[in-house]
Design a protein that fits this description.
Number of strands: 0
Shape: flat
Distance between the termini: 7 Å
């Protein structure tokens, strides 16, 4: 199946990159870009989007992972993804600290999803994404899941980010998206259906 093939591919790229294969390192980073992007977008609250683009956090994280690859001591896909999430968490919290230092009254403007002592490695795409039919994604399919989310329309991506990954109530999702609660619920159902279809097609390839 595609997920086991992808899992083996990541493991192979890690081993090759650690042996000094520059092309394998570049491929390893590139195939995880969508994954880092999904986590970054989940971390960037609505108030932050006006100040920083999630893509900036992704670029910074990928650059630091590239430059500091020799510091990665793991060998498994789980260790690799955890390492990327730690770098992203540091960059996200570094931005928050700098922003709060420049604007001391920021707490009156926002409600943070992540507290200063909490880090993004706690975000588990597989555990977070559930459908009404208890559709669950196995941990080893996180990269496949991120790639599938990246193929969705912007509206579908946003409703999944807000509802499934940030775990916001429908009323708040509706407010953020400028839609009625009913419209958001329908959009969410369609988004999950499309995501499941995309993942099923991927598993058949």
């Amino acid at each position: 199946m595609a997920n086991s093939q992808d899992h083996s591919r990541i493991h192979r790229l890690i081993l090759q990159a650690k042996e000094g294969d520059a092309e394998a390192r570049d491929e390893l980073l590139e195939c995880c870009r969508n994954y880092v992007n999904v986590i970054a977008r989940t971390n960037v609250e609505t108030w932050m989007r006006a100040k920083v683009d999630a893509s900036d956090l992704v670029q910074q994280t990928m650059l630091e992972a590239y430059q500091g690859f020799q510091d990665f001591e793991g060998k498994t896909e789980a260790e690799w993804l955890g390492w990327l999430k730690q770098i992203l968490a540091h960059n996200t919290h570094d931005f928050i600290r700098k922003f709060r230092a420049a604007k001391r009254d920021v707490k009156r403007e926002v409600r943070m999803q992540t507290s200063p002592g909490e880090s993004s490695p706690g975000i588990d795409l597989s555990a977070q994404l559930q459908t009404p039919s208890q559709f669950m994604i196995q941990n080893e399919r996180e990269i496949e899941l991120a790639n599938a989310i990246a193929q969705l329309s912007e509206d579908y991506q946003e409703v999944i980010q807000l509802r499934n990954l940030q775990r916001l109530p429908f009323d708040e999702v509706a407010e953020r998206m400028g839609r009625s609660r009913g419209a958001v619920q329908m959009l969410w159902a369609r988004a999950l259906k499309q995501l499941q279809e995309t993942l099923s097609q991927s598993g058949e390839d």
